[in-house]
Amino acid sequence: VPPARQQAARASSASAKAAERPVWCYDAGDGLHVDIRAQPDFGAARTGHVLLPGEEFRVEREHRGEDGVLFLKLVDRRGWVFESKPGVGTMCQRIR
Q1: In sequence order, what are the beta bridge partners of 46?
Q2: Which of 15, 27, 71, 77 is the most buried (most CB within 10 A)?
């Protein structure tokens, strides 16, 4: 199989797997964006990317922090966001 065909097959497979991932929606209810983090930690460096209110995203991985907060790794590799924030409340909800 030619290398270009192998690469196309891998890309198609990766797209199909991403489409199967859970879909979440960001909306903290305050009309503000959330900064995406480089690691699953509130104190982690910000990546320079954000989620806007109402923005839907797919999750590649979930990580429960020591404080019980569920961190969500975005499929598109922009980084991590959190399902809720102590003292603030729900930030993201799974929609499918």
Answers
A1: 37
A2: 71
Backbone dihedral angles phi then psi of residue 93, each to the nearest 5 degrees: -130, 140
Residues 16-72: tens digit of each pLDDT: 565 688 999 999 999 999 999 999 999 999 999 999 999 999 999 999 998 899 999
DSSP string across 28-76: -SSS--EEEESSSSTTSPEEEEEE-TT-EEEEEEEEE-TTSPEEEEETT
Task: Report the b/e string of 46-68 with b at 16+ CB within 10 A.
Answer: ebebebeeeeebbbeeeeeeeee
pTM over 0.90: no
Task: Report the sign of the C-alpha dihedral through residues 51, 52, 54, 56, in that order.
Answer: negative
